[in-house]
Amino acid sequence: MAVDLKTARRTLPAPMLDRSSYSIFSVIKQAIGKDLTRFSIPVVWNEPLSFIQRVAECLEYSSLLDSAASTETLIDRWHLLTAFVVSTLSTHLERMSKPFNPLLGETYELKMEGDTSFHYISEQVSHHPPVSAVYIRGQNWTLSANIEPKIKFHGTNVVALSEGRWILRIKKKQNRSRSGSQSSFQSCNDEETENNNSDHADDEMDEYTWKTPSVLVHNILFGRLWCEFQGQIDLIHKQSEQRSVLTIKSHSWFASQSTKTADMFKYSGFIYDDKTKISAYHGNYGHCYYAIDDLKDVQIKSSSPCSAAGHNCIQIGQNVSTAYPCDLVLTPSSRLIWYRSLSSMTDQELAVRSQYYYFTPFTYCLNEQVTTPVLPPTDSRYRQDMKYLEKGDIDGSSAEKHRLEEQQRADAKQREDEFQPLWFRKDENGEYVYTHEYEQRRFDHCPNLFTQSSRE
Ligand SMILES: CC(C)CCC[C@@H](C)[C@H]1CC[C@H]2[C@@H]3CC=C4C[C@@H](O)CC[C@]4(C)[C@H]3CC[C@]12C
């Protein structure tokens, strides 16, 4: 459970199956207009992760939230928060595989240690419609969401959207200084010392909310699959009139077929106080976030391109899968806040990324088996269908996935009352809220979700 990236695995037992002889279209054409989340696709299109593990990937750059919680400057906090939201998009661009649908009651826990520490707890709380409830505790902040993905097939492309919003709560500065020394700050590692493991009262927390924009997956009929996010993100501060409004440049899909266009993955936005613009920013959501310190510069292009290390991670075109440098043109006062870095990967690791689902070192650790402390039997890591896929055993994986789906159907038929999640409770607004009980680690009553014997 306690995972440190420095010691975690950096590869999978086997590379993925070459998909070039499989057509995704032939599989999903039966699903035109239907919701693909209810549709079981062949495992060659899966990646060895469950959806609630894939969502944990949004935390790869959680250190931005740590910085946002500790910064003294209001504008910088807004930039760090917006950069975090951008970072949650950046990890999905190359990953054109479908994560496994979690079983009802499946859980996933990730306690990350080292440079970026946080504690992620999630549960699949509804099956029809699929809803994943997540709760993350970091240093002086918590993040929670109910994610209800809807995936629709429209003939030439697939649109995935996620209902539900992210809620970020950051401990207010003045309360923290009132409480005295640094050592009384809440850390994600000392939940035991925290008052009853419960969240702080609302008035002690700054609350920010946003919704994930929809994802458009291109080239379902032919060509290389690729995706982009669309629309606008409103990051709203509950206790004031301030907000950050991010606009993703729209991009027509046929323009991208042969040429890489200048607007690809670009976004820009403003931070508002009521109706007044107080700051601006821009970037490429596959790669970087720049604050624009002088509002007058917004329309002015300097002669310098983005200089952040690393690469924008995607190139569309004739089967090219290498990364290319980010081509964002800076303004005179652009200031780098964040960029996506693959710099911890060796050249050898980078060279084989495409054969390993484009996983990063962070992704590799998500489904790694851990031995201490004990996890509930419902944890995604115990799913054998994903283990088979990791090892490249497609037949074994399909058979086990099928068995689990059948078992889940049989369970649903037998269930008389509505399913009750173990770690989240439905509140008066119909949202699933974390109960803080998971951390007491009493797992005796958890069902053996994935084993056969428990059903007999
Ligand atoms: C035809 C096949 C290969 C399509 C694959 C579609 C994949 C790439 C889509 C389907 C559902 C999508 C997810 C839906 C919801 C969220 C939550 C959000 O906060 C981050 C993005 C994330 C995690 C999306 C990532 C991309 C995703 C996993």
UniProtKB/TrEMBL annotation:
<dbReference type="GO" id="GO:0006869">
    <property type="term" value="P:lipid transport"/>
</dbReference>
<keyword id="KW-0446">Lipid-binding</keyword>
<feature type="compositionally biased region" description="Low complexity">
    <location>
        <begin position="177"/>
        <end position="187"/>
    </location>
</feature>
<dbReference type="InterPro" id="IPR018494">
    <property type="entry name" value="Oxysterol-bd_CS"/>
</dbReference>
<comment type="similarity">
    <text>Belongs to the OSBP family.</text>
</comment>
<dbReference type="InterPro" id="IPR000648">
    <property type="entry name" value="Oxysterol-bd"/>
</dbReference>
<keyword id="KW-0813">Transport</keyword>
<keyword id="KW-0445">Lipid transport</keyword>
<dbReference type="GO" id="GO:0005829">
    <property type="term" value="C:cytosol"/>
</dbReference>
<feature type="region of interest" description="Disordered">
    <location>
        <begin position="394"/>
        <end position="416"/>
    </location>
</feature>
<dbReference type="GO" id="GO:0032934">
    <property type="term" value="F:sterol binding"/>
</dbReference>
<dbReference type="Pfam" id="PF01237">
    <property type="entry name" value="Oxysterol_BP"/>
</dbReference>
<dbReference type="GO" id="GO:0097038">
    <property type="term" value="C:perinuclear endoplasmic reticulum"/>
</dbReference>
<dbReference type="GO" id="GO:0005886">
    <property type="term" value="C:plasma membrane"/>
</dbReference>
<feature type="region of interest" description="Disordered">
    <location>
        <begin position="174"/>
        <end position="204"/>
    </location>
</feature>
<protein>
    <recommendedName>
        <fullName>Oxysterol-binding protein</fullName>
    </recommendedName>
</protein>
<dbReference type="InterPro" id="IPR037239">
    <property type="entry name" value="OSBP_sf"/>
</dbReference>
